Amino acid sequence: MIKAKKSLGQNFLVDLNIIKKILDTVDIYNKSILEIGPGTGNLTIKILEKNPKELIVIEKDNRLASLLQNNFESQIKVINEDVLKINENLLHKEKLIVFGNLPYNISTEILCKWILNIKNRNFWFSHLILMFQKEVADRIIALPNTKNYGRLSVISNWKLNIKKICDVKPSSFSPKPKIDSTILYFEPKQNFYQLENSENLERITRTFFAHRRKMIKKPFNLLFKKNIHIVKKLKINLDLRPQNLNIETYIKLADEYEKLKS
Question: Does residue 208 fall inside a structural domain?
Fold first, then answer.
């Protein structure tokens, strides 16, 4: 029996009912699939039972990568690397359906990397079905004017439609984590506001939400040098707080920031 590594944030999903819910979210028959962090292969087995066209798994842990290769042989392609160091655009010629019980310590970093690396509308995936710490999932799906709304909400909902599938209790894992989890379903938006450099949106949101309880006047002036023209153009009230601005406004602010820098 392979023991989970705390350093890699490993908690193996063992609940067959939850696995079924995950696989019921999208039809994977004859589709190309990517699984992130398959662990001991409990979800992997059930994916293969659905007869996908191809299954690629990314597993950083050398022990688990070897176990998966031995157990599934030619049924899967094992990539024994850190998902954060992989160029996802080179994984496959076809768009992938992605399943992932993401390590909680790097889950937001993985999601933001995937979103920010998408150029124009060239999505390398068709669907994402991902597991997050519930607290993180709540921030991803949060709406403006709520306490959980922040940088992660803006970036996640910029290019993706997101739906909550269900919450998952610690008893569904081995070893049991100390917190609840949530499964989210992501699908690319057909239309979204395109930015020249997506890092500008990250900078805008990071600066504004650094002091989320204070008025946005200070971060606005820091980035835009008290440019009243932009305030009037976007009809922004500088007495509002960061959580009061909707996603569209943040994207337009990033666009204006790009124009100033060009």
Answer: yes
Query: Are 70 and 121 found together in one domain?
Result: yes
Buried-exposed string 24-52: b where 16+ CB fall within 10 A, e elsewhere: ebbebeebbbbbbbbbbbbbbeebbeeeb
What number of other Cβ atoms are within 10 A of residue 232's Cβ?
Answer: 9
**What would the pLDDT profile of 84-100 be if each residue is shown by its tens digit?**
999 999 999 999 999 99
183 and 223 part of one domain: no
pLDDT digits (tens, 9 = 90+) for 215-261: 999 999 999 999 999 999 999 999 999 999 999 999 999 999 999 98
Contacts of 196 (CB under 8 A, 6+ apart): 258, 262
pTM reported for the whole predicted model: 0.93
Task: Measure the CA–CA gap between 34 and 91, rounded to whole angstroms.
Answer: 9
Q: Distance between CA 1 and CA 93 in Å, rounded?
A: 36
Stretch 175-179: mean pLDDT, rounded?
A: 87
The closest alpha carbon to 57, from 65, 49, 46, belongs to 65
